[in-house]
Amino acid sequence: MNINTTKVISLLFFIFSAFYLYTAYQIQVFAFDENAPFNARTFPIYLGYAGLFFSGLKLILPDPNTIKVQHKTLEYKKTVILIVIAIIYGATILKVGYFLTTSLFLFSSYYFLGERRWVLMFLLSFPFVAAFMYLLHGVLDIYLRDPFLQSIGVMG
Amino acid sequence: MIEGIIIGLKTALTLQNILMVMLGCFFGTIIGMLPGLGPMTAIALMIPITYGFDPATGLILMAGVYYGAVFGGSTSSILLNAPGVPGTVATSFDGYPMAQQGKAGKALAIAAWSSFAGGTLSAIYLLFMAPSLSKVSLSFRSPDYFALMILGLTAIAAFSSKGQFLKAMMMVVLGLMLASVGQDSLSDITRFTFNNMNLTDGISFVLVVMATFAMNEALTIILKRNDPTSAVKQVSLTELGSIKINKEERTKMYKTIPRSSVIGFLIGVLPGAGATIASFLAYGMERNIVNDEEKEKFGKGSVNGLSAPETANNAACSGSFVPMLTLGIPGSGTTAVMLGALLGFGVQPGPRLYMTNPEIFWSIIMSMYIGMVILLILNLPLIPYIARILAVPKNYLIPLILFFSITGIYVMSFNNFDIYLMIGIAIVATFMRLYDFPMPPLILAFVLGGLMEENLRRSLLLSNGSWEFLWDRTLTACILLTTILIVVWHIYKTTFKKVTPK
């Protein structure tokens, strides 16, 4: 049996809207605001109903423009690897510091995407990040936290 | 107005701002040229850099990026038949056949001159129209604004959905839902935070833009790497041919440019429309206007066919600034991103902008002229060199986009949670995009969410909870009626009529 993924997404959106609507009704408002024409939960409640309405329509109405995605041609493995690297980057950037984590993130991303020109990979990671850091921190005066560079005395 | 122009010129012609326009045009051209990366991504990537500037400089930089990206999109349309921006799809109809005939240099020159002329003419229209519209919009009240926002969101959903109106409306609702996370602006009551302190201030606009455009774009490029339908054909970048335009071609352009600039500007002004529709309409109109002999050349390398969409898409860019600057309601996804950035600077666009912050209002308009000139000076002689950027390997491009996105969030919040949230939103957005759920309606809704709630709140409180405010004033009722017509027509069209791609 062929399942129309767009309908599945619409169903998920319908469930999400129902959950959103339920949560909207749970928003605590001040007692004097409870019966006011508009309070903190009014707009979210309308949004919840709007979500149910549009996703419900998408579910029940015929879909003449069905989208067929050729999953076999999609590069899932590399995408997942890149996402994992990005998550690791996000997890370490505060503790280790901007320079080292960003450089390693770029270097490893080039590698996992199939690049093997080591010199170019190096130039477009460590020196590139250093130059970008100088632009942000030194020229534009945007603060960049970097415990690693601070520990070795490069950054004040 | 003269005083305003002088203020604008003074601000726009400072060394720093001229440098910003130049940098913006240059980087915009490069980013816009890369297939898949449009002005929205280009501007989103620039937002962190603008943090260190004053609002006028930041906006001038973003305006430069915008024009540059639209022009850059034309380059990849002409050379690769792979439009970097939806607004330049029509450019490829005649630009690419010209390139295949060995006249790529000429095609790029026609595109550059048409963009310049279209942008300059529409900047003149903007100069005269924006202040008058600002005065008119002072009579707008909360119900009108609320109805106008509904119309804007519906229109962008209708125009950007490629026959998938309901999907676009779902994205609008999702954008509004994301905007509702965090503290309520009036009562300070937290909503949808699930006791997570990181969500108390709501979800950052930059985070949503980076996730749904820059990061989403990078993930989509890698995901579709082996997709034969997305593969682009490479034409020889070493043999671009002459960039000289002869007298006959110039004569054709003289006729095409004025009419295409008018249609481009007017379409750009409409909320939700923008460069894509403007370029297609101008192309279609031009084909209907020209004689039979010229009509035959359309699709095979016609000068009119190339000049018309190029003029119109640049004119529409200026046009889309009108509702943003005068009403505080963006006319396109790109101006929505700019509106978000403007709010981030603490500047509230709207009818009073040109009174309270004349230097911002006029310097943007003035920098458009300057941007057009710089774009031409910069791009025309550099065409052969800029074209080589198209050969940048994806192995480098993708990590660099991810790097700029994550850095943008990192310098803003120094918070791991925001990075995880951005990655999460990007994954969902990438998956939804595979099934043709459009992202511009989500961004526009996210930007307008707060303003919409604010105006609805005022309207309902003034009418004591009654929804009569929607038809009490003729203006509100007319706007609402237009919205209803768009909704009904598009639901009918997308559901019961099979949309055949052209």
Helical coverage of chain B, percent range: over 70%
Count of helix runs of chain B: 22
Biggest interface between chains: A-B, 72 and 70 residues
What is the number of helical segments of chain A per DSSP (H or I, 4+ residues)? 7
Mean pLDDT of chain A: 88
Distance between the termini of chain B: 45 Å
* Order of adjacent strands in the largest pleated sheet of chain B: 1-2
Tell me the total number of β-strands of chain B: 2
Structural class of chain A: mainly alpha
Q: What would the principal axes of the Cα set say about the shape of chain B?
A: globular
Structure description:
The complex is a heterodimer of chains A (156) and B (502). By secondary structure, chain A is mainly α. Chain A is 65% helix and 0% strand. Chain A has 2 domains: 5-68; 76-151, no CATH class. Chain A has helices at 5-26, 42-60, 76-96, 98-112, 118-123, 126-139, 147-151. Chain B has one domain. Chain B has 22 helices and 2 strands. In chain B, helix 3 (39-50) crosses helix 18 (394-413) and helix 18 (394-413) packs across helix 19 (416-434). Chain B is globular and about 65 Å long. The model of chain B is unreliable at 231-235 (pLDDT under 50). The chains are: A mainly alpha (156), B mainly alpha (502). Chains A and B meet through helix 1, helix 2, helix 3 and helix 4 of A and helix 8, helix 9, helix 18, helix 19 and helix 20 of B.
Summarize, please.
Chain A is mainly α and 156 residues long. Chain A has 7 helices and no strands.
Outline the secondary-structure elements:
The complex is a heterodimer of chains A (156) and B (502).
Chain A: H1 5-26, H2 42-60, H3 76-96, H4 98-112, H5 118-123, H6 126-139, H7 147-151
Chain B: H1 2-12, H2 15-33, H3 39-50, H4 55-80, H5 89-100, H6 104-137, H7 142-160, H8 165-179, E1 182-183, E2 190-191, H9 205-223, H10 247-269, H11 275-289, H12 292-297, H13 303-319, H14 321-327, H15 333-344, H16 353-356, H17 358-386, H18 394-413, H19 416-434, H20 440-462, H21 469-472, H22 474-496
Antiparallel strand pairs in B: 1-2
Helix pairs in contact in B: 1-17, 2-3, 2-4, 2-17, 3-4, 3-9, 3-15, 3-18, 4-5, 4-6, 4-13, 4-15, 4-17, 5-6, 5-13, 6-10, 6-13, 6-14, 6-17, 7-8, 7-20, 7-22, 8-20, 9-18, 9-19, 10-11, 10-13, 11-13, 15-20, 18-19
